[in-house]
Amino acid sequence: MSKTHTVTLIPGDGIGPEVTDAVIRILDATGVKFQWERFIAGAEAFEKYQEYIPKELYASIERNRVALKGPVTTPVGGGFASINVTLRKKFELFANFRPIKNLPGLKTHWPGVDLIIVRENTEGEYVGLEHEVVPGVVESLKVITRKGSTRIAKFAFEYARKHGRRKIHAIHKANIMKMSDGLFLKCSREISADYPEITYGEHIIDNTCMQLVMNPYQYDTLLLENLYGDIVSDLCAGLVGGLGLVPGANLGTEAAIFEAVHGSAPDIAGKDIANPTALLQSAILMLRHIDESSAADKVEGALERVYAEKQSLTRDVGGSAGTKAFADAVVKAVETAGQ
Fold first, then answer.
1. Residue 150 needs a FRET pair 20 to 30 A away by CA distance; which of 66, 168, 174, 313 works?
2. Residue 279 and residue 177 in one domain
3. Dihedral through CA 118, CA 121, CA 125, CA 129, nearest 10?
4. Rounded to two decimals, what is the model's pTM?
């Protein structure tokens, strides 16, 4: 008898519920059994519970140890703290993992991109330690620790070894931030010594951004601090078509949250035009994480087939299909896989 996976589900807001429903339909088509524990978060949750992240949501993730999350709006320059960052800190999801690959049939300036972005997910500027020293002067602290730097470096090298990746670049600004970024590099070098089969290199962050848009093929796996990783992962998404296409995973030793990394796009919410691809790609990572690799392969193959055929794509990638029609096409491709 097949196992039922209980997963915490955070549909999010804006287009979140639409793309989440589409992805759930596609996952159902695989035959894998899920029990979804659905929760709201952010402004909607505050209106209902006076909490941006309900206690029941925390308890669900702690119990299930895996969650699938749609986009949640984060206010700019004020308001409540990022739900994403809060959950990462709460559950020590220290590794942000984003594979960047082209989808078949989708024309970009850089075909054949195959990059792995490994981003430290709990430290750096994202610790949120900032205050106004005097009126008009704000001090923001960056925190880098040996523990955090060592474990993210080990994660990157372990992934590379397991999956046959042959090159890792640690990305830094140690020419300026000699102590903080210097510590990150020191830890990366120490870990690299245990993996002699993997070529290790170091590039300064600003040069890396230039190199990526000139020749992304020179890179394989990028190991980055939190802020640098946030910026570079979005840059790399642009190489293959944008944030609407790439997955995101937040991984720790006790829990994992798989999420779409794009925004909530409230301007197109409810119009049946949002692209579910990013959340679906994240769900594929989730399937592999819960040892449903056969289903993951089936969904990945179906998604690639729909893109290659170009018949049921959403508007953002040159098609005319709606969210539901795109999901219908992927469901059909899942159900007819191997025929």
1. 66
2. no
3. -170
4. 0.94
Same domain, 48 and 117: no
Helix, strand, or coil here: 44? helix
Q: Residue 101 falls within a domain, yes or no? A: no
**261-312 pLDDT, tens digit each:** 898 999 999 999 999 999 999 999 999 999 999 999 999 999 999 999 998 9
From 208, 240, 272, give the residue that closes a domain: 240
Q: What is the pLDDT of residue 37?
A: 98
pLDDT reading at 150 higher than 80: yes
Q: Is 79's pLDDT higher than 70? A: no
The answer to whether position 99 is within a domain reads no
The pLDDT tens digits for 193-231 are 999 999 999 999 999 999 999 999 999 999 999 999 999
- Say how far apart CA 94 and CA 92 lie, in whole Å: 5
**Which range marks the domain in which residue 48 is found?**
1-93+241-339
300-323 b/e with 16+ CB inside 10 Å = b?
Answer: bebbebbbeeeebbbebbebebbb
